[in-house]
Amino acid sequence: MDQSIKTLVALDANVAYDTIQAALPTDSSVQVVGMIEGLDEAWNTLQETTADLLIVACGGYSDRALYLIEGAVRQRPSRPVVVLTQGSPNGFVRRVFEVGADDVVVLPESQEGVKFSLQKAMARKLGVTGVGSLATAPLISVLGPKGGTGKTLVSTNLAVSLAAAGRKVALVDLDLQFGDIGLCLGLSPERTVYDLVKSGGTIDADKIEGYMTPHSSGVRALLAPSRPDQAASVSVELLRDVYSVLRGTYDFVVVDTPPGFTPEVIATIDTSSDVCLVGMLDSLSLKNTKLGLETLELMGYDRDRIRLVLNRAGSRVGITGDDVRTVIGREPDVFVPSDREIPRAVNEGQPIVLAKPGSEAARAFGLLAGTFLESSGGNGSAKRRRSLFARKG
Ligand SMILES: Nc1ncnc2c1ncn2[C@@H]1O[C@H](COP(=O)(O)OP(=O)(O)OP(=O)(O)O)[C@@H](O)[C@H]1O
Ligand SMILES: [Mg+2]
Fold first, then answer.
1. CA dihedral over 378, 308, 140, 258, signed as positive or negative
2. Model pLDDT for residues 272-307, shown as the tens digit of each residue
3. How far apart are CA 382 and CA 385, in angstroms?
4. Among 143, 153, 257, 339, which residue has the most ligand 1 atoms within 8 Å of its CB, making it the best to mutate?
5. How far is the CA of 13 from the centre of ligand 2 (A)?
6. Which atom of ligand 1 has the smallest separation from the CA of 149?
7. Which phi-psi region, left, alpha or beta, contains residue 374 (left: φ > 0; alpha: ψ -120 to 50)?
8. Which H helix or E strand runs over 34?
């Protein structure tokens, strides 16, 4: 997009002018036509201005911000609204999308990152698809609104299943503080994403390859830093570069994420082609899964790009398939049963699809991989998949 985006910025009382000023791109991509302090005043200006886009900046949860967004969207639905916030307390991101905002950027974020969000919001409203993207491989984010639902189990087994179907697969551990993909796959983290950051310079395919750890299945993993304090040096900007390079060189990129909608997770969802939401079969988890689904839909995700995986589906917790459909409002795509072999396989650093290929869990992952192979137009892969996961005797 070559044209400068005429932007009106409305500042809530709980955010400093300088902070927002510093976050905005300084090149010609964005032209700030007004910076208004106080959201109540913003409303009058909004009615008079011809800005292309509205930025609402706030320090964290703000009812005033929600009110302004809602009014602005109603007044001119074709004008995108992007929220810059210094924190994303529980439920705020969801509310922001609910009232009609196009994107949320959690600060601090680089000027490039902010620019990308503004351009994307404009492009979406103009009906432009595939902003700045070439033909690239699917990027699947594996998400779970809560910890311990089985995201890492799903991402590792999905990646290995796709590799077993003959695909070139990159697996990225975005759980930057407590990532355990290395453990689950029995890999030793000699080089991690932290080393990639520290190496400096531009990121290209050759360079990234030097930081990927190979697994015997053919999957290549970009492992999380080995110490939690190293996580902070991995920026959203770097992740975007990493994703775009991997999508150019692999057939599939699978990203394991930490629980919740952190800034890194939001940025990853934004760039991903598909989302795999992992929930569990108890009422609290179902409620969170439903909230997760709603948040994704509010972020503009088509339902058919979201796979819903219900983990520990065999547990006897008094919840039926009908209960699930009633609470979540849709049919799960795949059920993964509870299986004592799963923690054992994890302890041995073996994904269950390789440790127990005949198990029901392994077949569930085969099925999940199949849905991605089909939608990516995988020729002949179905046959190979079936033979891989056929029950052994
Ligand atoms: N279907 C299952 N049957 C038995 N054990 C399971 C099953 N799914 C997950 N587990 C066990 O539950 C634990 C949590 O799983 P996992 O690490 O995949 O969850 P997670 O969502 O990635 O967690 P976190 O949010 O901490 O990253 C692991 O010890 C795993 O072995
Ligand atoms: Mg995990």
1. negative
2. 999 999 998 887 888 889 988 988 888 878 888 999
3. 5
4. 153
5. 38
6. 21
7. alpha
8. strand 30-37
